Amino acid sequence: MSGREMQYVQEAFDSNWIAPLGPNVTAFEQEFAAKVGAKHALALSAGTAAIHLALIHLGVGPGDEVIVSTLTFAASANPVVYQGAKPVFIDSERTSWNMDPDLLAETLARKARQGRLPKAVILVHLYGQTADIDRILAICNKYDIPLIEDAAEALGARYKGRSPGVFGKAGIFSFNGNKIITTSGGGMLVSDDAELIAHARKLATQARDPAPHYQHSEIGYNYRMSNVLAGIGRGQLQALDDRVRRKREIFESYRRALGDLPGIDFMPEAPWGLHTRWLTVITVDPNRFGATREDIRLALEAENIESRPLWKPMHLQPVFAGCEAVGGDVAESLFTRGLCLPSGTAMSQSDIDRVVGIIRSMR
Ligand SMILES: *Cc1c(COP(=O)(O)O)cnc(C)c1O
């Protein structure tokens, strides 16, 4: 926590606006929209809920297809299945590790020839870095397919000077406990489309029609953020720039200390933007380093230090076994060789030195 959260939480208690909604929710939405440069924002119980509502608004339903990046967390793809639709997974490129625009172009051209275009594209911005959004957006626009940006991991990043999440039809962010800022749990849907946000807002509050009694003409959800948690979010948002600075410092410390080791490489920073380094991610070439990614993970674990492999690609997940995948070798090799190092902003230099010392001692 930054220290400013309690003031807003206290305001919620003092005014008795505990739930539902209240002034912190409205203020958090406005402050967040201003921060990322979106016209409208909707505070929700989770980033996953934000993706789900965007898909409902876009009319995704049973039998439809939705394109999703394969190298991501399952929450990017699960809402597609909630809607009875089918994800189609696309491999990563090597510049940013995000969706490969060439594979997307090929896939949409093929599906257009078959007369069966997907209903939406969910583009993930991984580990604090954006995809090549302009190229992806141009391809989506050519076929008139709406783009949803999953920026859950990339709040604070930049693409050609602007925040991710504001280029497509809708963008989503997450305030889950592991993200760069947190409300303990929560998410945000942003869009320049007032109608999309108004519809999502209605769906998120059990789709209540404007009537004095309770009346419903569509199925709704209980997806709003509480006024107490929005107070935490307002305080956290003020700490975002410091967090990004500290995350990048931690990354630079690791790079200075490990960059000379043969077989250890760092996630690249693409030329089009600013990488927040939400997580410091390395890849390990066992032939050159002399140990595998898993050897390093276990050596750290033996010292009570947690590190994690990259997201296991969606096309390799048992639950998505029957889904179409385009390519997959890049994501698979990143998964096999990649390791997320401890990257918490509360880490001290001696914490970082301990991690570094263990990795260096393995050669
Ligand atoms: C965390 C995350 C989500 C889901 O956000 P929640 O707030 O946990 O529901 C979605 N996509 C990606 C890529 C994430 O990392």
Description of the molecule:
It is a single chain. The protein has 363 residues and is of the alpha/beta class. The chain folds into 2 domains: 5-238, Aspartate Aminotransferase, domain 2 (3-Layer(aba) Sandwich); 240-360, Aspartate Aminotransferase, domain 1, CATH 3.90.1150. Helix content is 38%, strand content 15%. The protein is built from 13 helices and 14 strands. It has helices spanning 5-14, 23-36, 47-57, 78-82, 101-113, 133-142, 194-204, 227-237, 240-258, 286-289, 293-302, 329-337, 349-360; strands spanning 40-44, 65-69, 86-90, 120-124, 147-150, 158-159, 170-174, 187-191, 264-266, 273-274, 280-284, 308-309, 324-326, 338-341. Strands 1-8-7-5-4-2-3-13 form an 8-stranded mixed beta sheet, sandwiched between helices. The protein has a 4-stranded antiparallel beta sheet with strand order 9-11-14-12. β2, α4 (78-82) and β3 (86-90) form a beta-alpha-beta unit. α2 (23-36) runs parallel beside α8. It is globular. It starts with a helix and ends with a helix. Pyridoxal-5'-phosphate (PLP) binds at residues 46-48, 72-73, 75-76, 124, 150, 152-153, 174, 176, 187. The site of pyridoxal-5'-phosphate has 14 residues, from α3.
Describe this structure in a few short sentences.
The protein is an alpha/beta fold.
